[in-house]
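Hi all, long-time lurker, first post. I run a small reading group and we've been trying to get comfortable going from sequence to structure in the token notation. Rather than ask abstract questions, I figured I'd post a concrete chain and ask someone more experienced to write out its structure so we can walk through it together at our next meeting. Sequence below, copied exactly:
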Amino acid sequence: MPTKNCACCGEPFTPRPQVPDQAYCSAPACQRERRLRWQSVKMQTDPDYRDNQSRSQRAWLDRNPDYWRTYRSQTDKSSPAPVATVVTKGTPLSGLYWIKFQQEPSAKSDVWIAEITPARVECPCKKDACKERT
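-- Answer (accepted) --
Happy to help. Here is the structure in token form:
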């Protein structure tokens, strides 16, 4: 069977014969991404699944009423926000990027959309008004 490139990491892998449409390799990070994407699509397209998840989350919260209060009291308020760095060869590119924060497991597993612009931009008109934008 021919190899495919993983939809998550891009590495080549040989799909299992039982799963001809397999798109992800067996790496744990890629399988986690596959499940997150499946759940995201399922939440958007299946109202029964969405309702079941909501009821399940409510039941868990009812069983653990002090969870968030305890979680917030144990979290260090002075810790800096996560910083994302994009490295490109040559000129930095500005635009919209998907950034997934790869950290230790936390209370949420979100994907954020961020607009990234270069920190140092040469002003084409050499006027002070344009330099204030950077």
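A couple of things your group might point at:
The radius of gyration is 22 Å.
The first strand starts at residue 4 and ends at 5.
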